[in-house]
């Protein structure tokens, strides 16, 4: 009787291990850095059985290169374990964000996908949404069709990158809780205390829920077709002056309507115009909006062709620039629909000076303002309110 119980216990134990490994391989994804040390051959061989892929940290800002990345990446390549990479971003401006993205790619040109891990507010000039979008746009032509994700906590994302995130292929959401968050996401980091038998450590782990592993790492060169998801979404945008997409009667990438797809309107007729949105669609990592102009339906357009809608108001008052301003003056508001947005004056050039404010403007959905300023009768541009 004791022998039977022991055998039964062993069988149950083994079945539990098998079940655990099957579940881990199907659902869990580890994100790893130098904190987990240098991997060994045996660890990576076991790791391959535990997870469909891993995500390695490459850098902490552009100045700090993860000490274990080269070693661990080489072992993953050796044993054919797919990997994505992330940069713990520390950019302080638009130009700095572009540089971090270039350095990131140079260090990991063969990754399956790329992640902007932005969870510290480090931007000092140019606007956080603008810098976060610049990071993406700098990386996009380098990685081709590989996915680019944005990682952060929901509260931080809403405060600092709620506009830029729509241009990314997906949102990797950090939320340490027992129930899956309702906010749209492609990967959910649900714990920082998941035990990996392969590594013998407790680590950060994320769950694959709405997307399968092929969406992240590819499917032997074959494209993965996702079902289009539709949402109610009431918002305002401007059509970019540089818009490349047109308006269609259906979502362009929705295969369900491929045979019924037809051009509704050319973008050339609506560049710089305000559009109202009542629906949002997401398919294969791309976002589309159903747009109206003056109550007339234009159709669906790719989010890449839309920019922030901005309310402008003429005013006349004086404000004093900070002694050490971290913002600069621009010819147009960063993130607006204009094509030639550029910095025209450093904020520090007018430190502690009283400037005349000619107008103020607020992006749709924002609570903060940009101000149009002049000094001694000379127009000096738009600057964010934090400069005062």
Automatic annotation (TrEMBL):
Keywords: Signal. InterPro entries: GH, Glyco_hydro_25, GW_dom, GW_dom_sf. Residues 1-24 form the signal peptide. Residues 227-311 form the GW domain. Pfam families: Glyco_hydro_25, GW. It comes from the Bacteria. The keyword Signal applies. Gene3D superfamilies: 2.30.30.170, Glycosidases (3.20.20.80). PROSITE patterns: GLYCOSYL_HYDROL_F25_2, GW. Belongs to the glycosyl hydrolase 25 family. This is GW dipeptide domain-containing protein. It comes from Apilactobacillus xinyiensis. The lineage of its organism: Bacteria, Bacillati, Bacillota, Bacilli, Lactobacillales.
């Amino acid at each position: 009787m004791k022998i039977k119980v022991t055998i039964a216990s062993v069988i149950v134990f083994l079945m539990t291990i098998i079940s655990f490994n099957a579940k881990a391989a199907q659902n869990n994804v580890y994100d790893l850095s130098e904190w987990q040390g240098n991997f060994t051959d045996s660890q990576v061989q076991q790791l391959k059985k535990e997870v469909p892929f891993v995500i390695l940290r490459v850098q902490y800002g552009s100045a700090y290169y993860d000490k274990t990345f080269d070693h661990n990446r080489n072992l993953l390549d050796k044993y054919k374990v797919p990997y994505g990479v992330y940069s713990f971003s520390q950019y302080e401006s638009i130009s700095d964000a572009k540089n971090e993205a270039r350095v990131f790619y140079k260090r990991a040109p063969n990754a399956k996908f790329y992640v902007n891990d932005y969870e510290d507010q480090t931007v000092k000039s140019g606007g956080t949404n603008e810098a976060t979008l610049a990071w993406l746009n700098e990386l996009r032509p380098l990685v081709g069709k590989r996915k680019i994700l944005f990682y952060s906590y929901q509260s931080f994302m809403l405060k600092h990158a709620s506009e830029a995130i729509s241009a990314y292929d997906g949102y990797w959401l950090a939320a340490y809780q027992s129930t899956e968050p309702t906010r749209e996401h492609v990967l959910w980091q649900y714990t920082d205390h998941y035990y990996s038998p392969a590594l013998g450590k407790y680590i950060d782990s994320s769950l694959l829920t709405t997307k399968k592993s092929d969406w992240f790492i590819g499917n032997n060169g074959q494209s993965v077709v996702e079902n289009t998801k539709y949402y109610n979404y009431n918002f305002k945008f401007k059509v970019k002056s540089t818009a490349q997409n047109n308006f269609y009667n259906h979502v362009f990438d929705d295969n369900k309507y491929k045979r019924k797809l037809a051009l509704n309107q050319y973008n050339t007729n609506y560049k710089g115009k305000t559009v109202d949105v009542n629906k949002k669609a997401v398919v294969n990592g791309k976002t589309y909006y159903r747009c109206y102009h003056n109550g007339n339906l234009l159709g669906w357009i790719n989010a890449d062709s839309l920019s922030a809608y901005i309310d402008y108001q003429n005013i006349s008052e004086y404000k004093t620039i900070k002694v050490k301003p971290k913002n600069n003056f621009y010819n147009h508001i960063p993130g607006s629909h204009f094509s030639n947005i550029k910095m025209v004056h450093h904020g520090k050039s007018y430190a502690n000076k009283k400037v005349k404010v000619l107008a103020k403007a607020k992006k749709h959905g924002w609570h903060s303002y940009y101000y149009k300023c002049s000094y001694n009768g000379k127009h000096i541009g738009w600057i964010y309110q934090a400069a005062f």
